[in-house]
Amino acid sequence: MISLHGPQGAVDHGGSGSDGSLPAQTVWIDLNDPTAEEAAKVERTTGIRIPSRSALSEVESSSRLRRNRDGLSLSTPMVTFDRSDFSLKPLGFLLTADHFVTVRYHDMRAFAAVRKRVDDGDGDGSTSTRMFLLVVEELVDNLADLLEEMSGDLDNLSTRIFDFDAGARPGARKGDATAPKRRDLALRRLLRSVGRHGKSLAKVRASLLGLGRITAFVKNECDQALGEDDLPRFDTLGQDIASLDEFETRLSDTVQFLLDATLGLINIEQNNAFRVLTVVSVVGVPPTLVASIYGMNFKHMPELDWAYGYPYGLALIAVSAVLPLVFFRVKGWL
Q: Does the keyword Hydrolase apply (predicted)?
């Protein structure tokens, strides 16, 4: 889909004038998941070569930041901002003296916000560079909001991890055979949640890194053409991206800390299981020893002639089983 925008707002969502050329007031050309025909139409009317999706997805810096005869060709991976389908998709910027072209493959509220700002007269889109600044500023704001949401999610996740106690939850009873299964399921969910946050932060970091490189590149390449009001905006953008990068680093450290804590809880649960098995095996040794002794087929065994020899043997077996349990209980192992 093609949409056109000028300093006063939307120009012509059809993509071209009646003679096939762009309206004179067009500054920003937004291509949202363009077809080959739409890309070719923009190339014919502007002379700007529109890169393919595969070209925008290339990872080397020379392909993402490039000056050509048409102007500047820029690309970066950008998060989808959809928490239900959080992924990276390519985003392309083409910047010339007259036009600013964006090529994207998913809807982003930043673009809708920029359109509204221009329509309401709240943003200066009189030149291609200023329109570029509006889009990048809105993207940085959205990334900041996303990081704030993730910070809140990590706080909640931290509470869940460090207050983890399956026995204290409603419906969990002491001795309930299903409690270990519930604890195992809860720990699996915590581990998956920590992993999802780690992956999401890595994608946000890739987006911030790409925007930081693009902003610095455009500032250096267009230094002579920038107005006095534009340079401070580039400097502010650079500072905002740097601060968000530091914030993301702290959140990544928090994710690593929560991952270690979750793995520690899993180790504790495993140790508890092994402790129970160890106690059971130790408790079973003395009765087995007593039964083995009285199960020997010797001819002369005094207890065989006792009237209460059989109850005596049973009592001895019971006492030998109870004494280890009492010992472990006193030591606090049970």
A: no
| 145 dihedral zone (left: phi>0; alpha: psi -120 to 50; beta) | alpha
pLDDT in tens, 216-230: 888 888 766 666 777
For 151, residues 6+ apart whose C-beta sits below 8 A from its C-beta are 247, 251
Helices 128-162 and 179-221 cross at an angle (nearest 10°) of 160
Would you place residue 12 in the very low, low, confident or very high pLDDT band (cuts 50, 70, 90)?
A: low
Give the pLDDT confidence score for residue 175 in this predicted structure.
46
Q: What angle do CA 3, 7, 13 make, to 5 degrees?
A: 20
- Domain ranges, ordered by start, for the chain: 2-146+196-266, 276-331
Band of the pLDDT at 183, cuts 50, 70, 90?
confident
For the domain 2-146+196-266, what is the CATH superfamily, name and number?
CorA soluble domain-like (3.30.460.20)
Q: Do domains 2-146+196-266 and 276-331 have the same CATH topology?
A: no
Which two tokens mark 114? 């920029």
CATH topology of domain 276-331: Methane Monooxygenase Hydroxylase; Chain G, domain 1 (1.20.58)
Range name among 51-65, 162-176, 257-271 with the lowest pLDDT average: 162-176
